[in-house]
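Please decode residue identities from the backbone states below.
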């Protein structure tokens, strides 16, 4: 039997979990890893006439030259997952000119003061030249992920990742989750816009495209591993939501029934709100407020199709996610 690197990594995690290691710390709050800003709207293809506004990577992943290969692999995985989450169609001119690795994983010695002032940073390991500047403000012990605000430049935050165990979690759980959840979320909003313009064929395609609404399969896969901790009423809501999206909505789209498709889509959104906002007898599952910058990007998608916020946010779904 052949094992891939990712298979061995997962098996390694299972072994460490079985050994009942101390819990991974997330600081300064338990959801700091969820609200750190990894992406932001920006301009891609800079330096050419083909400028495109898109959701671009905002965080640079920084590692010291003497860190382990294991930590470097996790850093590369983090960068890949952020790339999956973002919608940037190309690499910026600045990155091509200054980073010989041609990607968002940087050796600390290659990082300039201007880049530190421009980006949030994810600093991996204690062998980085940046660690001594961060250490006096860090509270974590053992394996931990800690976010320090205004750490190395005003208005810019640093996420410090202590070791390979913490890096594995950030790459293969947290960023893996976000890259799928947001891809599904943005495409769910896009489908509503396509229905409005009666582009049923494209809406059907987005419904089945693995790179579109089915991107939510990534967080679902992770959730299944903790199924025993999910309340039964939430599992029921999830089943109802899946039926609405992948059976009922598909049926109305195939019929080209605009009003029925809108009603079904809105009902599915209400099911999302049941868990995300704590409605209809379901306990609120998401306990943190998402960042407006990336969460609100779906409104830009809708605006491109002429939709307003209250096209979708009305009744039970009147509350926006970052209020």
């Amino acid at each position: 039997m052949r094992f891939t690197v990712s298979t061995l990594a997962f098996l390694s995690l299972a072994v460490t979990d079985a050994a009942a290691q101390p819990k991974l710390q997330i600081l300064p709050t338990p959801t700091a890893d969820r609200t750190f800003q990894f992406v932001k709207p920006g301009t891609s293809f800079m330096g050419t006439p083909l400028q495109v506004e898109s959701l671009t990577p905002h965080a640079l992943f920084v590692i010291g030259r003497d860190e382990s290969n294991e930590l470097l692999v996790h850093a590369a995985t983090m960068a890949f997952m952020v790339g999956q989450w973002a919608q940037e169609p190309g690499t910026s001119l600045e990155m091509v000119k200054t980073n010989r690795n041609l990607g968002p994983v940087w050796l600390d010695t290659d990082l300039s003061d201007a880049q530190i002032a421009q980006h949030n940073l994810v600093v991996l390991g204690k062998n980085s030249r940046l660690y001594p500047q961060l250490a006096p403000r860090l509270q974590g012990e053992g394996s931990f992920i800690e976010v320090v605000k205004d750490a190395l430049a005003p208005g810019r935050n640093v996420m410090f990742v202590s070791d390979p165990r913490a890096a594995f979690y950030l790459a293969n759980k947290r960023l893996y989750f976000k890259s799928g959840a947001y891809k599904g979320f943005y495409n769910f909003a896009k489908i509503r816009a396509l229905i409005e313009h009666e582009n049923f064929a494209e809406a059907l395609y987005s419904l089945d495209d693995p790179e579109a609404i089915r991107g939510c399969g990534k967080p679902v896969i992770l959730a299944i591993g903790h199924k025993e901790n999910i309340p039964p009423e939430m599992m029921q809501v999830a089943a109802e939501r899946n039926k609405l999206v992948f059976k009922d909505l598909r049926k109305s789209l195939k019929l080209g029934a605009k009003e029925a498709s809108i009603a079904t889509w809105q009902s599915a959104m209400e099911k999302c709100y049941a868990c995300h906002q704590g409605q209809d007898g379901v306990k609120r599952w998401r306990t943190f407020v998402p960042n407006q910058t990336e969460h609100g990007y779906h409104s830009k998608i809708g605006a491109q199709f002429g939709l307003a916020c209250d096209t979708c946010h009305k009744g039970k779904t009147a509350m926006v996610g970052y209020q």
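Observation: The CA atoms of residues 228 and 235 lie 10 Å apart.
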